[in-house]
DNA sequence: ACCACTAAATAGTAACACTGAATAGCGGTC
DNA sequence: GACCGCTATTCAGTGTTACTATTTAGTGGT
């Protein structure tokens, strides 16, 4: 990860993982692979597991241990009601921030065009 | 600040401040006030000054001390060439992340509509 | 026995925004 | 002339976060 991306993921990675779980339950290794596929190419398992442990402690997800044919048992996480609420809050916070930043960017572009 | 927003600002507040400086030079107290006006209502001076000191150390900005009629001298920051490059990089990182998150959100909405 | 892949956990580190307080300069009021 | 309000900057200490690097564990193949 670039350093900028690393810092930007603070506060968003958690929401992204909750968003993934909102679509359907998943386990850590799977989530890591999906994030890698979606362009976060050098995200490491350890990072994802840390988030999962955190959201489990906060009771935002339910956990079920499911045996795997290919290795040790999987811990399958699914979003619960409290996690759903938290995710809604996340969208609100994100939307606000994204709108402000878009506004700042627009302001720069306007300035450069006509010298403000 | 809400806790979610606090975490989300990590990695973005710096970019936002650079973006403000890209429009025109400004000093810390002024930047704080502007951020407050734009909806980040409980941002505190200390936070902004910490960012300013950081970006000064990294040589992303030029600094000029300007006397004030109303108090101690102002430290007016302006974006330099290196800061401009860094800001460009920030927009790239931000755009990528924002696109991914928008995609995740869309995916949830699609799923909820027709059961995926 | 060894390796490759899957799967989870963990101790230690660096970076960041926040808290709370201190310092400093100016104007006005009582 | 001591005090308050506003402007303006700084700084030590804290909590949270993602990252690094390693360890442990299970299965199947050679």
Helix content of chain A: 55-70%
Strand content of chain A: 5-15%
Order of helices and strands of chain A: HHEHHEEH
Low-confidence segments of chain A, given as residue ranges, are: none
Task: State Rg of chain A.
Answer: 18 Å
End-to-end separation of chain A in angstroms reads 36 Å
CATH homologous superfamily assignment of chain A: Winged helix-like DNA-binding domain superfamily/Winged helix DNA-binding domain
CATH architect. name of chain A: Orthogonal Bundle
Describe this structure in words.
Chain A is built from five helices and three strands. Chain A is α+β, with helices and mostly antiparallel strands. Chain A has a single domain (3-114), classed as Winged helix-like DNA-binding domain superfamily/Winged helix DNA-binding domain (Arc Repressor Mutant, subunit A, Orthogonal Bundle), CATH 1.10.10.10. In chain A, α3 (28-37) packs across α4 (45-57). The termini of chain A are far apart. The model of chain A has no long low-confidence stretch (mean pLDDT 95). The interface between A and B is large, with 38 and 38 residues. The first copy, chain A, binds a DNA duplex (30 and 30 nucleotides) through residues 1, 3, 6-7, 9-11, 13-14, 27-30, 43-47, 49-54, 68-75.
């Amino acid at each position: 990860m670039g350093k900028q991306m690393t810092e930007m993921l603070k506060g968003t990675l958690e929401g992204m993982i909750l968003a993934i779980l909102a679509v359907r339950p998943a386990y850590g290794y799977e989530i890591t692979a999906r994030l890698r596929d979606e362009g976060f190419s050098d995200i490491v398992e350890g990072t994802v597991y840390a988030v999962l442990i955190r959201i489990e402690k906060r009771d935002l997800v339910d956990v079920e241990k499911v045996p795997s044919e290919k290795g040790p048992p999987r811990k399958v996480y699914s979003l619960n009601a409290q996690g759903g609420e938290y995710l809604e809050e996340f969208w609100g916070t994100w939307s606000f921030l994204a709108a402000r930043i878009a506004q700042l960017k627009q302001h720069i572009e306007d300035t450069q065009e006509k010298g403000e």
